[in-house]
Design a protein that fits this description.
The strands form 2 sheets. Strands 3-7-4-6-5-8 form a 6-stranded mixed barrel. The relative contact order is 0.21. Strand 5 (about 125-130) and strand 6 (about 130-140) form a beta hairpin. About 20% of the residues lie in helices and about 25% in strands. The protein has helices at about 1-25, 110-115, 165-170; strands at about 35, 60-65, 75-80, 105-110, 125-130, 130-140, 160-165, 180-185. It is built from 3 helices and 8 strands. The protein is an alpha+beta fold.
């Protein structure tokens, strides 16, 4: 009788332990790959549009070559990016070396998710604020470099960023003044 009670209880304990171990391993699977020492931008060269940060002299910024694993419900942070010329996005988009209108739903993904341009011109579905939008990947939110003219003197992106155009934010019904929004996304 005692063995009948202990056996299911032991199985439950083992199951919970395995879930905890694998959840912890997934969360830790993408650690910083290095540090980047911030440089002070030349006067008037850091564009603070859309709440962008500017690099600080001597501050150490984490860099990442990876992003968390992609699933059908990938957790991320949506930030605001301008893909037009002379905006806070810096250089032209990585996928086609062009600037794009912010009136269309487009995004830049953190380096690991951008995956050496493998998601260029592919659509992703973004879920946030009880709504969803389909957006095309056109750029990389560089997690390995920053604090230079190519990156508009902004720090490297975190490893979990979906950097969206104003059209993405509008489709989700959220003002860009919020700056950051917890979202989920998936390949379409």
């Amino acid at each position: 009788m005692k063995n009948q009670i202990y056996s299911p209880m032991l199985a439950l304990i083992l199951f919970l332990l395995l879930v905890a171990i694998f959840s912890s391993a997934e969360a830790q699977s993408c650690k910083p790959s290095g540090k980047l020492k911030g440089k002070k931008p030349p006067p008037g060269r850091c564009n603070r549009e859309n709440g962008s940060d500017c690099c600080e002299e001597g501050k150490l910024y984490d860099t990442y070559k990876c992003s968390p694993p992609v699933s059908s419900h990938t957790k991320a942070t949506l930030t605001v990016n301008c893909f037009e010329k002379n905006c806070d996005g810096g250089a032209p988009s990585e996928c086609d070396n062009k600037y794009h209108s912010d009136d269309i739903p487009i995004v830049a993904l953190s380096t690991g998710w951008f995956n050496k341009e493998s998601r260029c011109h592919h659509n992703i579905t973004i879920h946030g604020n009880g709504r969803s939008v389909v957006a095309m990947v056109v750029d990389e939110c560089d997690s390995t470099a920053g604090c230079d003219s190519d990156h508009d003197y902004q720090p490297p992106c975190h490893n979990n960023i979906v950097d969206g155009s104003k059209a993405v934010w509008k489709a989700l019904g959220v003002s860009t003044s919020v700056g950051e929004l917890p979202i989920f996304w998936a390949d379409k």
